[in-house]
Design goal:
This protein has 168 residues and is an alpha/beta fold. It has one domain: Diaminopimelate Epimerase, Chain A, domain 1, CATH 3.10.310.50. A four-stranded mixed β-sheet has the order 1-2-3-4. Helix 4 links the parallel strand 2 and strand 3. Helix 6 packs antiparallel against helix 7. The longest helix has 19 residues. The termini are far apart. The N terminus is likely disordered.
Length: 168
């Protein structure tokens, strides 16, 4: 009898998995950011985090646009929910000024070979999804293919900043 109950519980758990809410997915237990760069996958050295932080902080002072980078360990979410998870983080952490909706979250997962950039509605008026996609393909991805995550993130971040400055 106990074996059958266990099988039923496992089966029911699999059925509801695809419809998990942040509370039952464990997402609500994500700790607050450690700064503008939160490195759960430990892709960057302390010096590299500092360099990325300086770029982001300088840009925010010039424009008020807030950028956050988070590396996402595969243990935090299933691969098929990666994009949804990055949006959840952007909203939970409050990336961007609320009244301007001017946040950008760059979610990176080496383990899943994924990157997702979530632009707030205020940023989307300056930077289209197509432009964001082209920046990812041209600046982030090539170094990532060589396992150079800092180089790809830095050049991609610089391209995002340069493109946004041209439009302000």
């Amino acid at each position: 009898m106990k074996k059958h109950l266990a099988l039923v519980l496992i089966f029911c758990g699999m059925l509801s998995f695809g419809q998990a809410t942040p509370a039952d997915s464990g997402w609500d237990k994500i700790p607050p950011p450690t700064g503008v760069v939160t490195d759960y996958e430990q892709l960057f050295t302390d010096k590299e985090i500092l360099a990325l932080t300086e770029l982001i902080t300088k840009f925010e002072k010039q424009t008020t646009i807030e950028i956050a980078i988070v590396t996402i360990n595969p243990e935090l979410t299933p691969k098929d929910r990666f994009e949804e998870f990055t949006l959840y983080i952007a909203n939970k952490w409050g990336v961007g000024k609320k009244e301007k909706k001017n946040g950008i979250l760059i979610g990176i997962s080496k383990g899943y070979h994924r990157i997702r950039i979530q632009n707030g509605d205020g940023v989307k008026t300056l930077l289209s999804d197509d432009e964001t996609y082209r920046i990812v393909q041209a600046y982030f991805i090539p170094p990532y293919k060589e396992d150079k995550y800092f180089d790809g993130t830095k050049t991609g971040l610089e391209a995002l900043i340069r493109t946004l400055k041209e439009k302000l």
